Amino acid sequence: MKTTPTPIRAWLLWTTSFLALPVGGFVGTIITGRIDSPLSAISGGAIAGLIIGAGQALTSSRRLKPQTWIPATAIGMSAGLALAAAAVDYRTSLPDLALMGILNGLILGLAQALALPPALGRRRWIWAAAMPALWGVGWTVTTLAKIAVDQQFIIFGASGALVVTAISGLLLNSLPPTFPSIKPTKTSPIAATAKASS
After folding, report:
1. pLDDT tens per residue, range 31-55
2. Quick one: CA torsion of 41, 45, 48, 49, rounded to 10 degrees?
3. How many angstroms separate the CA atoms of 94 and 101, rounded?
4. Which residues, other chains included, contact 52 with Cβ-Cβ below 8 Å and sequence gap of 6+?
5. Which of 38, 51, 62, 135 could bridge across to 101 with cysteines, CB 3.0–4.6 Å?
């Protein structure tokens, strides 16, 4: 039987998905190399987005549907990184990376908000509005942590990912589950007796 976790447990579970961000970035970097061209940004962002989206969907306590969230995250990361990296001319200073994060988060947030159930109404756009700020914070934290950001990574490191995921988990907890938990069906004594005698 699956039950809905408490808000704290749901937040803790979601926070573990921070690992998907550096893992996605690492895998994408192995395949595409540095983010120093539109092609590397588009392909690297898509690869990282697939892994990030999968990790987030798995740890969302049924609030995110994998069939919509994963492709939305891949598309948002791909388009967002391509636009953001080009906007700062692929530079890696703190102001440039913060701006890159804001622009990347803007596109990613819109794509992910559209993947949320329309029944959530305006609450979907709270998520979209938060992502630019969070992505900017993620790059800022990673840069201040003295990570070698001059290597033109796809996404910020584990330190920034942990901060971003922990804060976004508070937003996620405000959303209801998108598909119900599995509950055991109750069988009446009469039906159970009839089934046993048949």
Report:
1. 999 999 999 999 999 999 999 999 9
2. 180
3. 10
4. 17, 20, 21, 24, 73, 77, 155
5. 135
Contact residues for 73 (Cβ-Cβ < 8 A; gap 6+): 49, 50, 52, 53, 56, 108, 111, 112, 115
In sequence order, the 6+-apart residues with CB closer than 8 A to the CB of 192 are none
Mean pLDDT by 10 residues, the chain (198 residues): 75 96 96 96 98 96 93 98 97 97 98 90 91 97 94 96 96 73 47 49
* Token pair in block for residue 73: 């995250």
Query: What are the contacts of 68-72 at 24+ separation with CB within 8 A?
Result: 68/115, 69/112, 69/115, 71/115, 72/111, 72/112, 72/114, 72/115
96: tokens are 């440039």
Instruction: Compute the distance between CA of residue 98 and CA of residue 107 in angstroms, rounded to an integer.
Output: 15
Q: What end-to-end distance do the CA atoms of the chain give, in Å?
A: 27
Positive or negative, the CA dihedral 20, 143, 126, 68 is negative
Task: From 65, 69, 70, 59, select the one nearest 12 (Cα to Cα).
Answer: 59
Which tokens sit at 125? 């756009």
